[in-house]
């Protein structure tokens, strides 16, 4: 059985996934994509500002964990969620329970999910698809900015921690999950499901990018991630539903804003060496 021992194992796994997905999506060794990305950061202030904004929102999400820990008055809406949907997650988990599937879903939840965001940034920057790169940045920002207030003031616990009939399957292949990975995701940060919303946003944008492999890969990954959040006993059906809506809205907003900014750039002759007119979105 595949065992994740630490965040070092997680980092190595994510790196390998990103490496091979970029290689297949661009048909070039990822070193070219990395070089192109670094060049963009140092030659385009607009590109650099968007990347800095992306890093900043991830930092804010990390800060939310500390702020939430200092809040003594938090409303717990978990009983309300349970009364609304009952034992859906418990039934789902018991229906598919299998040791091999547990390992696969843990791999998907922990490693595939962040790989979608990282690979998207490198693929679009390498392909000079600036609209999609900016759309990804905006979509991720919107996902976090909308979700964080809910995490602070609308506390919903993970299913396994609330229902004794739901197992914490994550510990089967990642025994140090609570000490190693937990600091990146609070136990009560359930509604909406960011695993759902961000994977939906990445798939939505990838389907618009006209990169067939990347569109199919992100779509299949999105479906598998949604399956994993139920199977592992982490999210409620309500969390997933809210995440689905958030992911689509964030992606659509990201596209609209990126299109508008590209038009403004062309009108004012910014980034003259880039022909935005050739970058189309369906």
UniProtKB/TrEMBL annotation:
Transmembrane segments annotated in the record for this chain: 6-26, 47-63, 106-126, 133-154, 186-206, 213-234
Keywords: Membrane, Transmembrane, Transmembrane helix
Protein name according to UniProt: Inositol phosphorylceramide synthase
Domain (Phosphatidic acid phosphatase type 2/haloperoxidase) ranges: 164-259
Cellular compartments per GO CC: membrane
One Pfam family cited in the UniProt record for this chain: PAP2
Organism: Paenibacillus psychroresistens
Taxonomy, superkingdom: Bacteria
